[in-house]
């Protein structure tokens, strides 16, 4: 028989891990929905043009990492990120008519064709939050604080918040020309990869791991020194609000992210408990020009995404424990129908009930019950149902139709 395995860079979520992921989802739901964020889910695949225009044609995501299918007339892509689809949904469904900002969150799978590593997969899951429709720096600060609350709630280890500002496109364009000239003047010391994208995306040079490139970038001009006062005031207001929320942070003038739509505020949370190459738990920023790039009216927005797998890797929470079982029903073959009815009645009444389904002997069934550790074990026999209370109560034989009466008051 041929054996199949999951493709490289993907994985199966087995029941024991699913419990931990469910707990993370419920924590995110509680943190975000009490701040007014509503759940949204967008399609797994979208028009390729949505990401080419929204994420940026010069980014690694679009150039190298997207899973795309179709033909020249109609091309689709498995979503590599969640912000562009969310903004598309905002425009398509007329959410601009709602009170602004519209606050949304999601937990979805995403896909990138990149080299699999610890905490980095070709199919991965992210929790994301987006607030669309307001330029107020308080929106930036609120989203940052909410991600901090989520990471604290799951016990993420050794976290650090890093923030920066990219300013608005006009100011960044002038700086980009200055940085490009600087990189060209030092081209012989840069990695081939950085050289190849100087004209497409020079800011990504700050993210290079190449040692000689890092030495060059240590002396490179900084964007924050070239920004107009309006952008600096916005950044200062975000910092004031973070300080008011008692949230510590570091300003990193070299911080960049791999998507072109960001403007002004940029941030990420890092964990010292993970390897440096995969230590970012989540991050995001403001994207005031994205809706317009996608064909809509100018609409401010800000958001973040955090990797489910990395958050679980960094979490200090103990492994999730499955909910206790209230009732285990054991029976010989001649009592199958009555036993099945009892288990069904117990579940309908809101109890957790397990039924023997493997054809074990009564002895084997009782061993299985010991493994599951239910509160009650009901053993069918010719004399009635032996109801065993594993919590120190009295064992007794009762009629099958009265079992629910005996257990209802004590569960």
TrEMBL record:
Residues forming coiled coils: none
Pfam family, one: tRNA-synt_His
EC number: 6.1.1.21
Aminoacyl-transfer RNA synthetases class-II family profile domain boundaries: 1-332
CDD domains with a match to the protein in the record: HisRS-like_core
Reactions it catalyzes: tRNA(His) + L-histidine + ATP = L-histidyl-tRNA(His) + AMP + diphosphate + H(+)
InterPro entries reported for this sequence: aa-tRNA-synth_II, aa-tRNA-synth_II/BPL/LPL, Anticodon-bd_dom_sf, His-tRNA-ligase, HisRS-like_core, HisRS/HisZ
Keywords in alphabetical order: Aminoacyl-tRNA synthetase, ATP-binding, Cytoplasm, Ligase, Nucleotide-binding, Protein biosynthesis
Record flagged with keyword GTP-binding: no
Biological process annotations from GO: histidyl-tRNA aminoacylation
Top-level taxon of the source organism: Bacteria
GO terms of molecular function: ATP binding; histidine-tRNA ligase activity
Subcellular localization: Cytoplasm
Stored Gene3D superfamilies: Anticodon-binding domain (3.40.50.800), Bira Bifunctional Protein, Domain 2 (3.30.930.10)
Subunit structure: Homodimer.
NCBIfam families per record: hisS
PANTHER family: HISTIDINE--TRNA LIGASE, MITOCHONDRIAL-RELATED, HISTIDYL-TRNA SYNTHETASE
Family the entry assigns: Belongs to the class-II aminoacyl-tRNA synthetase family.
Protein name per the record: Histidine--tRNA ligase
Lineage: Bacteria, Bacillati, Actinomycetota, Thermoleophilia, Solirubrobacterales
């Amino acid at each position: 028989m041929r054996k199949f395995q999951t493709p490289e860079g993907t994985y199966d979520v087995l029941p024991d891990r699913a419990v931990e992921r469910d707990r993370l989802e419920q924590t995110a739901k509680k943190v975000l929905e009490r701040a007014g964020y509503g759940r949204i889910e967008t399609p797994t695949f979208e028009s390729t043009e949505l990401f080419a225009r929204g994420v940026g044609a010069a980014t690694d995501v679009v150039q190298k990492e997207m899973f795309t299918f179709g033909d020249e007339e109609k091309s689709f892509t498995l979503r590599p990120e969640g912000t562009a689809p969310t903004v598309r949904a905002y425009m398509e469904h007329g959410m601009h008519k709602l009170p602004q900002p519209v606050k949304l969150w999601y937990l979805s799978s995403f896909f990138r064709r990149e080299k699999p590593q610890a905490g980095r997969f070709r199919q991965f899951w992210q929790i994301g939050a987006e607030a669309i429709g307001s330029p107020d720096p308080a929106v930036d600060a609120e989203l940052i604080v909410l991600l901090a609350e989520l990471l604290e709630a799951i016990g993420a280890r050794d976290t650090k918040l890093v923030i920066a500002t990219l300013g608005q496109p006009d100011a960044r364009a002038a700086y980009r020309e200055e940085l490009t000239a600087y990189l060209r003047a030092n081209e012989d010391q840069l990695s081939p990869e950085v050289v190849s994208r100087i004209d497409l995306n020079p800011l990504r040079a700050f993210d290079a791991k190449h040692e000689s490139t890092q030495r060059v970038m240590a002396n490179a001009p900084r964007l924050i020194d070239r920004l107009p006062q309006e952008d600096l005031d916005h950044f200062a207001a975000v910092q004031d609000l973070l300080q008011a929320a008692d949230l510590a942070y570091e300003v990193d003038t070299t911080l960049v992210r791999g998507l072109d739509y960001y403007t002004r505020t940029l941030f990420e949370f890092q964990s010292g408990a993970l390897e440096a190459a995969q230590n970012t738990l989540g991050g995001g920023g403001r994207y005031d020009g994205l809706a317009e790039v996608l064909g809509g009216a100018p609409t401010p927005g800000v958001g973040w995404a955090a990797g489910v797998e990395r958050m679980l890797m960094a979490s200090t929470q103990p492994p999730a424990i499955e909910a206790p079982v209230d009732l285990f029903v054991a029976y010989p073959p001649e009592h199958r129908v009555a036993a099945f009815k009892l288990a069904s009645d117990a579940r309908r009444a809101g109890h957790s009930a397990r039924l023997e389904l493997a054809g074990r002997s009564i002895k084997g069934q009782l061993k299985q019950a010991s493994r599951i550790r239910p509160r009650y074990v009901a053993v069918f026999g010719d004399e009635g149902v032996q109801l065993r209370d594993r919590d120190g109560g009295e064992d007794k034989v009762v009629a099958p139709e009265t079992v629910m009466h005996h257990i209802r008051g004590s569960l």
